[in-house]
Fold these 2 entries.
Entry 1:
Amino acid sequence: MPKRSVTAEPNQHSIIATCIFDAPRELVFKLMTDPEMIPQWYAPKNLTTTVDKMEPWSGGSWRFVVRSQNGGEWAFHGVYHSIDAPITNVSTYEYEGLPGKVSLETNLYEDHEGGTKLTTISVFQSIEDRDNMMQSDMQEGGNESMNLLEELLATMTVRS
């Protein structure tokens, strides 16, 4: 399992999540920006992710739909502001169930001890929005998604 931490400092609008992967940053970046790979790791195993749209370039947009076996459905979308492969990508993130609650997501990919350190900085419009995200099951889902990404990376680095 990758080493993951999530920090939300009091009175700040941001959440900072870091995750260490035992894989090259070019590969981590590819799996985070490849619409064919997203369904394999984006949501916990008991859910299915469909990439409705993914245009991973500056000005492009994205939309993912996550479904449960009992018919639940959650959709998320955003716009890519910048992409500098394999160093960073910046996009907005909005859960369609709470329209108008948009965060700005910056992913930084750094070489780290033969692997990759992924730092995600999520900036919310208000501290209340940030706190609500922290109180959701975001951390559990994020941990499981990062575990799935690590498993997928391991199969790909073995093949390389």
Entry 2:
Amino acid sequence: MTFVGGELIIDMSPEYFETHNLIKTEITAVIYGLVKARRSGQVFSDRYLFSNPAAGVSTEPDAMFAKSSSLRGGRCQMVRSSRPGVGEELVGSPDWVLEILSPSSQRKDTKLLREAYFKAGIPEYWLVNALGEVIDFQILVPDSNGYVAVETQAGWCASPTFGCSFRLTREPGDDGFWQYTLHVQE
């Protein structure tokens, strides 16, 4: 469930295994390993609520990252809900958000959340579309009017948040499913 731009979006579509779930697992695993090795903050995986009241958004991104300095400095904070049965949420502005497109989420991810994340002051937004023949992997950073994609250099996208470059590839696996690899270049 997502609240963004004054609109409540409830998407009951199942998550596509090959073009969504496998990608999310790969990216989250790599980013978590990087963050853990550097002891640089917290990675929030799928189903963790993010809210930024000033930007008018409340949603569960595919993944998020908040630097330790952002958590200590109040840029974002983990808040325990006062509602029974509801867990914690990240309120404010994380340093990184990931969204992977599904057939039913294209407008939400490419327009509504893109605008809301920019308004929320999130420094880096990764947008992945693996629905076609080629993976569209974008690292988006703020410009004066919205997010712009960082230019690729020989197939690599530089991440200001993580201080390294990334490339997302896929190849057929022995089990008949795509095997995704998030390559890291430090």
